[in-house]
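Q: What does the predicted 3D structure of AraC family transcriptional regulator look like?
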Amino acid sequence: MLFTKGEGTYEIDFVKCTVSPSQMYFMVPGQVHSWDLTGDNDGYIINFSSSFFHSFLLSPEYLKQFSFLAGIVDGSIITLPENLRQEITAVFESIIEEAQLKHRVNRDMIRVLLLRIFLTINKHLGSRPEQKVTGSKVILIRNFQNLVEQHFHRLRLPRDYATLLYITPNHLNALSKDILGKPAGEVIRERVLLEAKRRLIDFDLTISEVAFQLGFNDNSYFTKFFKKYGGITPEEFREKHS
């Protein structure tokens, strides 16, 4: 999503952001989001399925190279400089033109244009000083984040992921602190806490059901975990978002 005009707030996974022109937001399936926009707003939104590129790209893992598609809020909100905003806006306009033609071949053109947006943003991020850590370290951390996404329901310790990555827990922690600014254990806990928040706003589920789905066999332990790392109890969180 690209804002070209407007103001207000936008909340993704319970993180509130101030909307301003030239901001791009990337979201992935499962994220919780809400709007509180004021005034005259304009921009572009594109929704596509996770399988949209499968028949087009040789590697189904291709999109995982883009950090802004990892579902981590801090890395998925990008403010574009003016020259880049103009370039990206032109690509959005081209996508709209192709979509209106409603021809099978044009779906491939839309895929090409979407990839152009991703590659252009990725190139922009790579030019920023804070993004210049590259090579095997970044690959390891991305693999760690992907593994956490797959296994956080049942694997809660850094050593579990270090084993899957064929490195030591100390090495994983050092890499996590160096690149993500936090230890590996915190990355895992934050993912569990986020999923708990996502499920707690589904009022069809009881708190005990949420705890069980996340691998907490003891409801009281889930409450202690949530309050320790979330600052409030699950009941208070649910009431706050009712």
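A (community wiki): The structure tokens above were generated from the sequence. The chain has two domains: 2-131, 136-240. The first helix runs from residue 73 to 76.
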